[in-house]
Amino acid sequence: MDYSSVRRNMVENQLRTNRIEDQRLLDAMLEVPRERFVPKMLRGVAYLDEDLILPSGQHLIEPLALARLVQAAEVGAGDVALVLGCGTGYTAAVVGRLSATTMTVVPDEIAARQIESLLDDLGADNVVVRIGEDPLAGAPDQAPFDAIILAGAVAEVPDALLDQLGEGGRLVAVLDDGRIGKGTRFSRIGGTIGRRILFDARIPPLPGAAREPAFSF
Fold first, then answer.
1. For residue 207, cis peptide bond before it (omega within 30 degrees of 0)
2. Count of domains observed in the chain
3. What does the alpha-carbon distance between residue 29 and residue 67 come to, in Å, rounded to a whole number?
4. 68: domain CATH number?
5. Any idea what DSSP says for residue 46?
6. Cα distance between residue 74 and residue 51, in whole Å
């Protein structure tokens, strides 16, 4: 399979036609070989416009939903970014093309070694991999961050994670109460956190993040 051609088709037909207009992001998703982040048996479907659930229990978010989240984060060339919940390393590889430094938190040492090896092979030397069991804990010792991207749906974003945003920082996530997910951007302005719903989305839950029980009458 000519993956470079399939990748260009993803960018032109899935992303650009659906209001993904950030040229730096489009270039990053054109450059990063998505098929390298899934097992060989799934490489042929790596560019389908749907989430891929991997044998490891991790997932790869559909290209359009991921692009919408990253575009909403407005990652600048001088930014320090944090990616949470992407056990494959793909999201970090894309965000790393946009930022000065990107940190990603993965669940165990085996995953960390595999991702580091792949990122090294791709020349993503500005992406730092660290181990953490709770993705919503973030990386408080490395804060503040200019951008935080959650690569999985959550019921809510804890204050302790929002506290890791620097002034002007943005956190993007899909908030899912069990009905329809909402792509949401949190921003820190003047020391205050505001939120804005941007789009509807349905993506897999953030791995390792416990869902809070919904209130019912």
1. no
2. 1
3. 8
4. 3.40.50.150
5. T
6. 23
pLDDT at 213: 38
- Strand 80-84 to 101-106 pairing: parallel
Under the banding of pLDDT at 50, 70 and 90, the label for residue 125 is: very high
Residue 11 lies in a domain: yes
**In angstroms, what CA-CA distances link 132 with 100, 104, 108, 128?**
22, 10, 7, 13
CA dihedral of 179, 180, 182, 183, whole degrees rounded to 10 = 130
Residues making up the chain, counted from first to last? 217
Nearest-angstrom CA–CA distance, 46 and 6? 10
Quick check: is 208 in a domain?
no
Average pLDDT estimate for 112-120: 95
Determine the structural domain holding residue 57 and report its residue range.
3-201
Give the number of other Cβ atoms within 10 Å of residue 182's Cβ: 17
User: Tell me, what amino acid is at 48?
Assistant: L
Q: Nearest to residue 129, comparing CAs of 140, 144, 118, 145?
A: 118
- 67, containing H or E segment: helix 63-73
Write phi, then psi, for 127 (nearest 5 degrees). Answer: -105, 125
154 three-class SS: strand
Query: Is the full-model pTM beyond 0.85?
Result: yes
CA distance 185 to 173: 7
Q: Indicate the SS3 state at residue 82.
A: strand
Identity of the residue numbered 78: G
Q: In whole angstroms, give the CA distance from residue 65 to residue 86.
A: 14
